[in-house]
Amino acid sequence: MSLSSIATTVPNPNSLQLIYAGGTFGSYGRPLAPLSAAVFLPTLQQLLTEHNDSAGLPDISWLDNTLIKDSSQLTPNDFMHFYSLLLESYAQGHRRFVLITGTDTLSYLGAFLAEAFAGSDLCLVVTGSMRPLLDSEVLQKYSVDTNSDAWGNLNDSLKLAAGGASGVKICFGGESWPAQTVQKIHSHDFMAFTGHSRAAYPANSYVKALPDTRRQHWIDDQNAILDSMRARTEQARIHALYCLPNDPEVLSNQLQGLLSQPPCGIILLGFGAGNVPYSTALAEALQLAYEQGHMVICASQCPFGGVSDSYAAGSWQYDYHVIAGGRLTIPAIYARLLWSLLRYDTPARRRQRWTHSVNQTGITVKKR
Questions:
Q1: Contact 113, 86 (CB under 8 A)
Q2: Which of 51, 199, 234, 252 is 20 to 30 Å from the Cα of 334, by its Cα?
Q3: At what angle do helices 226-233 and 212-224 cross, to 10 degrees?
């Protein structure tokens, strides 16, 4: 195995590109702080060369990435950066990638890239760690912290990406899942994430192997709208309204406060199966939100199970054009909303995209 900079010749489609985006994984010192790519990547190169864990892997190069920051600071502009970075490399002939990022928004970024690359044969594995790769107790040289989860997560991710299966996956704690099913469930345990393997759209929309002509058409279609997507990123906003045992007026006032903005995405976090306290004011605000082009998606505060419209306490909202989030996680709902806002230029097309996507998951949404 060899680790090198990006090749200038036609890439080997079986090679693997590594992207370092910061986070706990690359932090070091006292106090802990992320190492720059100029320091961390050569160190990682040396460690991969010294250890036998990566034996049998394909050639690995790193993809030059200028955006290295704490993942809690990521914005829609940053999500577009990683999409553009991967799209450019994919267009050059690369197929397999591992992205190292921070855990705070790892599931959000993974789900967004899963939306963005649906229909392609790209293979991307997203990972990170709960403890840094390097041992800060050893200051004489950079060495792997044997008590960290970073080295195991990296090697598992490299092996998974080497397999080349199309799609975007998250690999963490010895497991891997389709990215749009994953959520963070623990703030500091090594088993910080969970997901499930029975994912529907967009995971099932990936193509095992695209003919060159079809792949080029897919790439051309994405590049044709890239500038307009970047322009829409400047105004893309996703909001979350959290139901609490308050007077319903509190929720309606929060929603009213968003209606003066350009069309945005709104996640309504209901109780249980998506129950939301009813009030005339809230119903009127939801109707007005729809008329002004906002997309309101109902999700559950529960980590598992999603929402349904079988309870009267929740079904009323669908009369006012709220969209049921089904079994989608909050990161997946955020990702789909953001992709819809960036990819499509009208509220009608965004809702059409969402309806198509949700129907693909087998979730039945009551028509009223």
A1: yes
A2: 252
A3: 40
pTM attached to this predicted model: 0.91
Q: Where are the domains of the chain?
A: 3-228, 237-360
Statement: residue 84 has pLDDT above 50: yes
The SS3 assignment for 169 reads: strand
Asked if the 237-360 domain carries CATH number 3.40.50.2000, the reply is no
For 3-228, CATH gives 3.40.50.1170
Q: What are the tens digits of pLDDT across the range 123-133?
A: 999 999 999 99
Which among 147, 109, 153 is positioned nearest to 128, based on CA atoms?
Answer: 153
For residue 158, give both structure tokens. 């490299």
Residue 114 tokens, joined: 């899963």
- DSSP-derived secondary structure for 92-129: TT--EEEEE--SSSHHHHHHHHHHHTTTS--EEEEE--
Hey, do 3-228 and 237-360 end up sharing a CATH topology, with the first three levels equal? yes
